[in-house]
Known about the structure:
The complex is a heterodimer. Chain A is mainly β. Chain A has strands spanning 9-13, 18-23, 31-38, 45-50, 55-56, 61-64, 70-75, 84-92, 106-111.
Amino acid sequence: DAKTTQPNSMESNEEEPVHLPCNHSTISGTDYIHWYRQLPSQGPEYVIHGLTSNVNNRMASLAIAEDRKSSTLILHRATLRDAAVYYCILRDDQGGSEKLVFGKGTKLTVNP
Amino acid sequence: DTGVSQNPRHKITKRGQNVTFRCDPISEHNRLYWYRQTLGQGPEFLTYFQNEAQLEKSRLLSDRFSAERPKGSFSTLEIQRTEQGDSAMYLCASSLRPTRSLSGNTIYFGEGSWLTVV
């Protein structure tokens, strides 16, 4: 499984934008970039995913570099409820089990 | 609430006892996954079912672990002769098998079952 590199932790202030980086230099052509987050004492939840183009949804935006070797999850206005561990995951969505392979993620702290 | 239900949510057991966890996935989902998570680590994949067939097992799934999904709906994960190293959160997740027109299916996780072996 292709690997990703994320900072161990990041800090933000409430109502400010947050940019969470992810490096994935060994990404293959069929790998989608998925982001999940895990709030304390809960299971992971889906945030967003993309292949080549930037993506937006109600939770966040995903900016993907042109060479696809890195991406950035953008939370436009952080709230205290966004404090969580954010996982950047590469997944081959062309077949197989489509299981998610998690790393350690980035622990986001949001200050009031 | 994602719709994936896990029971029990917490279990404390003595070393050497057997424990069983149950997962009820989202009703129309044909894929079901089990993960294990220890403190400070990301979830680790254990096994995956498509309908009732167990199609992939991680090497983490030792002989003491067995998972079933008898009718392609709910699933159970049994741990026999528990050891202290089995203490973890066990996560269940489900999704739809992708079709030609639907790829990148979202995987939905339950809230997990916490196991403490004393």
